[in-house]
Structures are given as C-alpha cells and as structure tokens.
Amino acid sequence: MAKLVLTVVGDDRAGLVQSLADVVTAHGGNWETSELAELAGAFAGIVLVSVPDGRVEELTAALDGLDGMMQVVLHAGNATVERSAGRRITFTVLGNDRPGIVKDVTTALTRKGLTIDLFSSRTREAPMTGGTLFEASLAARVPDDVDEAGVVEELERLATEMQVDIAFTDEGPGHPE
C-alpha cells in the first residue's frame, strides 16, 4: 500500500469532504488521518490516505478531476522516514494577540532542536475586555540529547517576555502519542 498525503483547499460549501472521500474510496483508498477546517471562507486541510500500489496513478488522475471544486495537491508519503526519536512535550499558549507570537515560539523550539508534531492555533474575542486573544496547542518532540528542563525554562522565559501564558500538559493536544 502506498501512503499519500493530500493537501486540499476550496471555497467552503457543503459536500467538499464527501466528494474527496468518494474519490478516495472509489479507487480503493483508505482515509486514515486528517486535519480539516474552515478558515475565512476557505476550507483547507491535510489528509493521509493509503491506496493499493497499482491504483496510485488512477487515484491521482481522479483527484485532478476535483479541480473545479477544490485544489488537491498530492505528496507521496515516505514510509522509510521515521518519527524523530525523543520525548513529546505538549503545551498551550494563551495571550493577547499580536504579530510574531508564532515566530517567537517556533524560533525557541527550533533553537533547542525540537520538531513540531502538532500545531493548532486560533484567535478569538477576549471575554469582557474587548480585545483579541491568541491561543495555540502544540506537541513537540524533544531529542534524547536535549535537556527537557532547559526547554521548559526557555519557553517560560519567552512567555514572560511576550506576556503570554504557557501551560504544559500531560497529553498531546487532540492526538495520542
């Protein structure tokens, strides 16, 4: 079985996910994992499907046929690439929205050698204060040779500097390890 990663985007409307699911199923594919969302009137996401090796080209051609409804970009999965070794840390970020929060947090993670397994964010109205809040849930992989306490310390320092709250959790945001 071939593993294919599909990125999809289209104008939000009823039936987009069903149309994609119909094509995948009609060509012997299995919908394994996905993250899909409506964002500012567009519907976008990423989907992992498996399909019999002999039907990859057939599925690819059928996905091209969805172009009038949504754009689907196919990325061949690489089963030989394994998940990074190390421990998983999960945390949330919450604070007043401002440009650069994602850049600052991801720069700190990269500087410490972490890779991101999951990143989900949104902005929302702040209750009773009238401002906009930024919140994010992250799961990152700490390499075996990196001191996790140093990572936590760096993120806590950054939270103080950025005036946001960072809370560490025991479980991944939305997905088991």
UniProtKB/TrEMBL annotation:
Domain of life: Bacteria
Record protein name field: ACT domain-containing protein
Limits of the ACT domain: 90-171
InterPro entries: ACT-like_dom_sf (IPR045865), ACT_dom (IPR002912), GcvR (IPR016867), UPF0237/GcvR_regulator (IPR050990)
Pfam families registered for this protein in UniProt: ACT (PF01842), ACT_6 (PF13740)
Lineage per the UniProt record: Bacteria, Bacillati, Actinomycetota, Actinomycetes, Micrococcales
